[in-house]
């Protein structure tokens, strides 16, 4: 089955390059460093490394506290951190600079993985969340390199998809040395797919171990002061099909709160210009954060078109809607606004964060909306009721505080399997 899988990769290779070129129209970085996708021309490392793979910005930010602690605990072990997107790459470089080695993760072909392993010689592989790549795992197993899944998650939808390819997925999961997953429900799904029961351990989600340091709080306070004394709500990590509803909701919100400001943060940077044009077509006064222009009293929408600032911007808002949830994409991280003590709103599609959503709902800290009308009503109600807003925000903060500790559990387990010098 893996031979057929590999053959499909090779057959699709021309289409993959076309896709990079196509995406490069709006995000030119996709057209660069293409040799890394094939693990060509990688610098040979003189000794052993530990390879950490995160997909994009979200996984990189979630892994950042773990990577920092691993750098502190094991300063003599070079860390190779890979991503698959330019935005993830930029985030790695912004967070860690030259403290880690960074390249794109190669496409999952046998020859590319062989070249990657020869170049970096990893003695341990740590994969974040749901990055399950059969040839990567097989290449590690061939070299007797243990592979661990860290902060593993597996939604019902993903489980059903993987189950259709059990002949490929089961052997892969059986090669994992360990799977540190977020919830018992996800642990059971991994077991049903073929992961050995004794290798699956529930450690919780490291995303609960979010740290809002003084520098971040100070930056958020400066931004909030610049926005003025007015109601501010944020729509974060939005996708196509959501911005139209969000702007329609904002018009309704301003009918109830004429000075309300929307901070709009699209998920993908290549869409920033398109969203700015969309706001203009809606007849709303816009300021882009990247322009450095001040927000005026008449500004209706503040476009968050900078990278790596979303966590900070949550702290400058009063109410937070998290996108990828009005459309069936599974939602994004609900814990970031919750950590700030902000009331959290989401659409109905949040299968990527199902347990987090349940915990927030149990404490009445999450409001579910289905369209522009319900979104407008929920935001307007919260902006107009400081007591309710405070209660929901504190409940959200308490959920985050009550479920921390996963990072320490993960680090303790990794200390046990860390390669010796």
Protein traits:
seven-stranded parallel sheet, 2 domains, 18 helices, Rossmann fold, 47% helix, globular, 421 residues, alpha/beta
SSE layout:
Elements: H1 2-23, H2 34-37, E1 49-53, H3 57-73, E2 79-83, H4 86-96, E3 101-104, H5 110-120, E4 122-128, H6 134-142, E5 147-152, H7 156-163, H8 166-174, E6 178-181, H9 184-193, E7 200-202, H10 214-227, E8 232-238, H11 243-256, E9 261-266, H12 272-281, E10 286-288, E11 301-303, H13 310-314, E12 319-322, H14 335-339, E13 344-346, H15 354-362, E14 366-368, H16 372-383, H17 386-402, H18 406-417
Parallel strand pairs: 1-2, 1-4, 2-3, 4-5, 5-6, 6-7, 8-9, 8-12, 9-11, 10-11, 12-13, 13-14
Give a short overview.
The protein has 421 residues and is of the alpha/beta class. Helices cover 47% and strands 15% of the residues.
Plain-language structure description:
The protein has 18 helices and 14 strands. By secondary structure, the protein is α/β, with parallel strands linked by helices. The protein has 2 domains: 221 residues, 3-Deoxy-D-manno-octulosonic-acid transferase, N-terminal domain (Rossmann fold); 189 residues, Glycogen Phosphorylase B (Rossmann fold, 3-Layer(aba) Sandwich), CATH 3.40.50.2000. The strands form 2 sheets. A 7-stranded parallel sheet has the order 3-2-1-4-5-6-7, with helices on both faces. Strands 10-11-9-8-12-13-14 form a 7-stranded parallel sheet. Helix 3 packs parallel to helix 4, helix 5 crosses helix 6 and helix 7 runs parallel beside helix 9. The longest helix is centred in the first third of the chain and has 22 residues. It is globular. 45% of the residues are buried. The mean pLDDT is 95.
